[in-house]
């Protein structure tokens, strides 16, 4: 029985879900993967896929993989471990951020105490504007409830 994403709010131009707390990511099940949840369907994203993964101490993804078109960015949210990319192994910990090109042969392994991470996939080379260049000022009336 998998934990379910909680819908927080949605509208014509947005959808908000809660996937956490991070300590409960281990309770999600996606296909054969315990501790994994993907957000594309839940959020309706069109330019990226985001997933959260939780692995107990010593566990690794059961296969190395590459991608056809998408680069991935792994962000470590809790814990520590290692990544192996193209045969190179390096340590990662809370706050580590790793970009992998589509052809990079990758895997991730949890270290002492386990590992919780986010992985974002987006088509390599698709970003046309970034940081503030794609943002536009908009008119709005503040309606905060707290
Ligand atoms: Zn991947």
Write down how many β-strands occur, each being a DSSP E stretch of 2 or more residues: 10
Q: Helix and strand string, N-terminal first?
A: EEEEEHEEEEE
Instruction: State the CATH class.
Output: Mainly Beta
CATH superfamily: Jelly Rolls
Ligand catalogue:
zinc ion
Number of domains: 1
Mean pLDDT: 97
Radius of gyration: 17 Å
Give the low-confidence spans.
none
What would you say the CATH architecture is?
Sandwich
Q: What is the distance, rounded to the nearest whole angstrom, between the alpha carbons of the first and last residues? A: 35 Å
Major sheet attributes: 6 strands, antiparallel
- Total helices: the number is 1
From the helix content, strand content and strand pairing, which structural class follows?
mainly beta
Provide the β-strand percentage band: over 45%
**CATH topology type:** Jelly Rolls
Assign a percent range to the helix content.
Answer: under 10%
Globally, the shape reads globular
Question: Could you explain the architecture of this structure?
Answer:
This protein is mainly β and 146 residues long. It has one domain: Jelly Rolls (Sandwich). Helix content is 3%, strand content 48%. It is built from 1 helix and 10 strands; from the N terminus they run E-E-E-E-E-H-E-E-E-E-E. The protein has one helix at residues 40-43; strands spanning 6-11, 14-18, 29-30, 33-34, 36-38, 48-55, 70-85, 88-93, 97-100, 106-123. Strands 5, 6, 7, 8, 9 and 10 form a 6-stranded antiparallel sheet that branches. Strands 1-2 form a two-stranded antiparallel sheet. It has a two-stranded antiparallel ribbon with strand order 3-4. Strand 1 and strand 2 form a beta hairpin. The termini are far apart. The model has no long low-confidence stretch (mean pLDDT 97). The structure holds zinc ion.
């Amino acid at each position: 029985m998998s934990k379910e994403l909680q819908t927080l709010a949605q509208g014509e131009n947005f959808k908000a879900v809660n996937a956490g707390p991070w300590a409960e990511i281990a309770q999600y099940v996606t296909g054969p993967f315990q501790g994994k949840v993907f957000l594309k369907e839940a959020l309706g994203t069109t330019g990226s896929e985001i997933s959260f993964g939780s692995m107990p101490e010593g566990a690794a993804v059961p296969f190395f993989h590459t991608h056809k078109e998408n680069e991935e960015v792994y962000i470590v949210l809790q814990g520590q471990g290692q990544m192996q990319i193209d045969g190179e192994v390096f340590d990662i910990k809370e706050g580590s951020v790793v970009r992998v090109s589509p052809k990079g042969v990758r895997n991730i392994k949890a270290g002492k105490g386990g590992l919780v991470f986010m992985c974002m996939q987006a088509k390599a080379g698709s970003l046309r504007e970034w940081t503030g260049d794609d943002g536009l000022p908009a008119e709005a009336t503040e309606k905060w409830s707290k």
